Structure formats: structure tokens, C-alpha cells
Amino acid sequence: MHSDLNIALLPMQIVWGMKNLNMDSLREAILRIHPATDLLILPETFSTGFPSGMDIGMVRSMAEPCDGETMRSLRELSSAHNVAICGSVIAEDSGELFNRAFFVEPSGETTFADKRHLFTMAGEHHVFSPGTRRLTVRYRGWNISMVICYDLRFPVWCRNTGSGYDLLIVVANWPQVRINAWKRLIPARAIENLAYVAAVDCRGTDSKGFVYDGSSSVVDFKGDEISVPDHIDNIIYASLSKERLDAFREKFPAHLDADTFTII
């Protein structure tokens, strides 16, 4: 069991709709990550880009099952480099399409969950089916939860009930035009949930002309930035301390006064 968790954020330059190029970009980048990295975090729909405004037929052509080529490649990379990898992909399951979060461990064990809040302003709700639960995984002594992009705007969905997670991961294709909201919501979720938050955005320009600047960060349980960017390799690093997190929760146990609720 590790007391610290070393994470790396990869704000990828996504080429929209070009799965092979994006996978090649990941394969090249993973060779450059620090060897002590426990977890590599990729943006939302890292292999295809977010399908803003695309009709369902176009999106379906980019979708894969959970045992498809993309997930097989991710499991191979995770095992070869002894690093967990998480992000989201466009998935097809029983005829339905999902914006599906994944968490792949070096052992090959893989956890999935689907994006809950679909971005109606881009027509996402016309293409994907919504998820019903948040991704939660136990990895190297850490309780980790994960949400996707627009989910970040909804504090009830992100609520850390009973201090159930130590780290909240947010993967996104969050455009530059709304980046101020992104930068404010990340520390807000950390402060209110007494947890680390690691949030990774992509870079590039989508099919609608929206620009993504790769704004990504890791903040601690006080909302303070703790990430260190490697400008040469375009990778962002942070080391998370379970000891410091537990000590702060004991000193300032605001979670004990939290309201109880049930999401229907």
C-alpha cells in the first residue's frame, strides 16, 4: 500500500475523429512519463474528441465495445508501463451509445461508468444514454472517483458522501470560451468534498471550431494548486499525500456535518 500517489495529467492535442493518430500520440507520450508515476489521466474521449453536433450515425462509427481495439491497447500499455490509465471513450453497449469513463490497472482489471450529465447545448443527449452511477475504484490504497466534463458543474453528483473518495478525477473537453468556469469549479469541488481533485482538459480545435487550450490542474483538499507542469513534455505531475489528507480531515471534519440525501 502506498501512502503517496504519483499522478500525471496528459492534456493531449486531440485530432478530432482520427483514432489512430490519437492512439499513436498516447503511445509516444507514455514513453516520456516519469517512471514513478502510478496513474496517467487522459482527457474525455481522448481517442476521438468530443462529438459536438455530430449525428448519431457518425458517432456510432467511432464507437467501440468495452473489449474493442482501444481498450485492448490501453490494457497493454498499462501492463507494459506498470501505470494505471484513465479517461473516457465513445462506447457502444447493447445498441446504445455512451460517453464511458474507464480506469485500467496494470493487472488488466478495468472499471467503467458512464457520463451522467449530457451536454444538451451540444446535443449530447440526442446521441448518448446517461449513466446512473459514478466510477469508483480502490487503487494502491486510495479511494478514487471519476466524473466526466459537464458532471463537474453538478455538486450533488460529485458529493463525497461519507468521505468515500480521496481523489476526484475530472476528464474533459472543456472549450477555452468557458475556461473561467472550469478553473473555478475545480477548487470548489475539492474544498467542499475535502479531497484532492485532478482535472485534465484537451488541446486542439473541434469540428465546430471551438478551441481547447489544455488547462489542467491538480488541487489539494484546501483548493490549493499542487501540480507541477513539465513544459517540455507537456505533462503535468502531482504527488498526493494520504497522510496530509487524513490529518486535515481529522483537524477540520466538515464532512461530519454534511447533509444526507439520495439521488433517485
Q: Would you kindly provide a brief summary of this structure?
A:
This protein has helices spanning 19-30, 56-62, 69-81, 155-158, 179-193, 242-251, and strands spanning 4-9, 39-41, 84-93, 96-104, 110-114, 135-139, 142-148, 167-171, 196-200, 203-205, 211-213, 217-219, 228-230, 235-241. By secondary structure, it is an alpha/beta fold.
Widest sheet, order of strands: 5-4-3-2-1-14-13
Outline the low-pLDDT stretches: none
Biggest pleated sheet = 7 strands, mixed
Return Rg in Å. Answer: 17 Å
Give the number of DSSP strands.
14
Question: What is the structural class?
Answer: alpha/beta
Name the shape in a single word.
globular
The H/E string reads: EHEHHEEEEEHEHEEEEEEH
Give the overall average pLDDT: 96
Quote the beta fraction: 25-35%
**Distance separating the two termini:** 35 Å
Q: Considering DSSP H and I runs of 4 or more, what fraction of the residues is helical?
A: 10-25%
Number of helices: 6
Protein described:
- With 264 residues, the protein is of the alpha/beta class.
- Helices cover 23% and strands 28% of the residues.
- The relative contact order is 0.17.
Characteristics:
single chain; 264 residues; alpha/beta; seven-stranded mixed β-sheet; five-stranded mixed β-sheet; 6 helices; 14 strands
Please give the structural blueprint:
Blueprint: E1 4-9, H1 19-30, E2 39-41, H2 56-62, H3 69-81, E3 84-93, E4 96-104, E5 110-114, E6 135-139, E7 142-148, H4 155-158, E8 167-171, H5 179-193, E9 196-200, E10 203-205, E11 211-213, E12 217-219, E13 228-230, E14 235-241, H6 242-251
Parallel strand pairs: 1-2, 2-3, 7-8, 8-9
Antiparallel strand pairs: 1-14, 3-4, 4-5, 6-7, 9-12, 10-11, 13-14
